[in-house]
Hints:
This protein is α/β, with parallel strands linked by helices.
Amino acid sequence: MLDFTGQVAIVTGAGNGLGRRYALDLARRGARVVVNDIGVGVDGTSTADTPAERVVTEIRDAGGDAVAAPATVADVAGGQSIVDRTLDAYGRLDILINNAGIARTNLFTDVRYEDVLASLHVHLLGAFHLLLPAWRHLGANGGGAVVNTTSAVGMFGQRRSSVYAAGKMGIVGLTRVLALEGEEHGVRVNAIAPVASSRMAAEVYGRLDPKLDPTFVSAVVLAMAHPTSTVSGEVVSAGGGRISRLMLAATEGHFDPALDDVTAAAALTDVCADQRVAAVPGCAMDEIDLIRASYPDLADFRMRPR
């Protein structure tokens, strides 16, 4: 069992499902946990439930240390208050797990703008609302870890999920950039793409559902959050006992120094059907370097990360 003694962790959306599992598992391993949840349904609408306090009670009854932070992640004030609650209670922050999420699925013709705002304010802006006040504290004790939550729906697409997918793919970009910027401060940033039985998934997985215990995902999240981990900037799919790296990759492509619209049209179908990976860029400049490599006269001028 990994040891998190001395570590302080925030887990958002920790009143139910995966977030609750993360909070319980961290506390069982010695972490002090700030349990965030405001008690809403899967669609983000309010309920009378107080799940954060319930999970705190579970942790304390098992001999752990936790406090509740029942503030919304959907606005700046809520994010700040969660970080403030953490520092007031424990005086430090080592781990941030951005787990809170809602789901409002519809074909794009039926999407309402209020659904766009509600989803992005929780998934994508919610991560910013925590990260902006938390960032400098994560590196204050020699390093820290962030685990953001993305989805295969964002990486690969799925019908009826345009709003959700947009937010989740935004999380991938945020994760990649912060991993680069956090390196010098000892802050590792990764994203989990969970596959688990949950309220949000409902009946999506059918007969596979009994195999998808949230504990399998929690094991991977804890591995990414542990201070001995060296992994950063990755998107990891986890579910049912399987772990997989999800990659953004580049193919060799088609090069023509006189490329115009006609030659582009002739090549485009083949280029977009090519599944042979030429590179897995570590940053944007790595992908741009594939263009530079097509020019022999620039052989000594490799593009560098910025």
